[in-house]
Amino acid sequence: MINDSIQNEIVVDVKNLTKIFTSGLIRTKNVVGIQNVTFMVKRGEIVSLVGESGSGKSTTANIILRLLKPTSGTVLINGKPIEEFRKKEYYRKVQVIFQDPYGSYNLYHKVDRILNKAFQLKKDPPPLEERERIIHEVLDQMGIRADELLGRYPHQLSGGQLQRLMLARVLIIRPELLIADEATSMIDASSRAGVLNLIQLLAKDEGLAIIYITHDIGQAQYISDRVVVMQNGLIVEQGDPSKVFIKPEQKYTKDLICCVPTMHQRWDFIKF
Ligand SMILES: Nc1ncnc2c1ncn2[C@@H]1O[C@H](COP(=O)(O)OP(=O)(O)OP(=O)(O)O)[C@@H](O)[C@H]1O
Ligand SMILES: [Mg+2]
């Protein structure tokens, strides 16, 4: 477990982030992606971004990942503006796992090669034998039997195994911040619980700051230290999940919670 003074370090500080998308050459049309988005994530903390489709969760993530340039606002990693980092240095600090585990790998590379490539991001990549030791150690930590994965191609693995492989890769790189964008939405419920527990392990034992993006309020409640609720590109509410989900202040948050299906209630047929 990480100690309290380390836990108070701010890893990512997002300030007044706005992104306006413009499309069309002659008649330009502006679409608000996000507006004035402000939140932070400390070391060892999991912050969930929740909200309906199109609320701006991925736009926020893609700006932090430097895949999109903001219209205005800043993102600091360890107190430094993200545009001031060199590319390799930046992706040593910030990593992502996406929704589609199949689209995240080169299908012609065996798992061994995928994990070995992760060492290339390191400042001083260890020699080959040391890499093999680390790979076995990391797979063990992720609860994966090495013979289950090594020597196989991505298409020979299940979605759950691929997401765990992605997390093993993250553990080799040991970034400061991990962004998980709908990382469990394509895997079944039993694999999902395992992946959520591994994400918790990365935060609580390894001290990673994690931004967990999900549609699923139940997952956000289960996994997060704080939740940020977004609607139409704006943050409408943020705070402790027990406060936000048990006593929401905003009608939008109440509506999101009402939509969560439960085992004890069947949906009433609604006529529109
Ligand atoms: N490249 C783009 N060009 C124009 N508009 C965009 C672009 N990317 C996103 N948008 C718009 O920005 C808004 C926010 O989209 P975003 O993808 O961030 O939502 P989201 O919360 O991640 O949704 P989902 O839950 O469906 O993934 C939407 O209105 C979307 O149409
Ligand atoms: Mg999205």
What does this structure look like?
The structure is a single chain. The protein has 272 residues and is α/β, with parallel strands linked by helices. The protein has one domain: Rossmann fold. It contains 11 helices and 10 strands. The strands form 2 sheets. A 6-stranded mixed β-sheet has the order 6-7-8-3-9-10, sandwiched between helices. A 4-stranded antiparallel β-sheet has the order 2-1-4-5, covered by helices on one side. Helix 8 (189-204) links the parallel strand 7 and strand 8 (209-214). Helix 5 packs across helix 7. The radius of gyration is 20 Å and the shape is globular. The N and C termini lie far apart (51 Å). The mean pLDDT is 88.
Write the H/E string, N to C.
HEEEHEEHEHHHHEHEHEEHH
CATH fold node name: Rossmann fold
Architecture, CATH level 2? 3-Layer(aba) Sandwich
| Radius of gyration from the alpha-carbon trace, in angstroms | 20 Å
The percentage helix is 25-40%
According to DSSP, the number of beta strands is 10
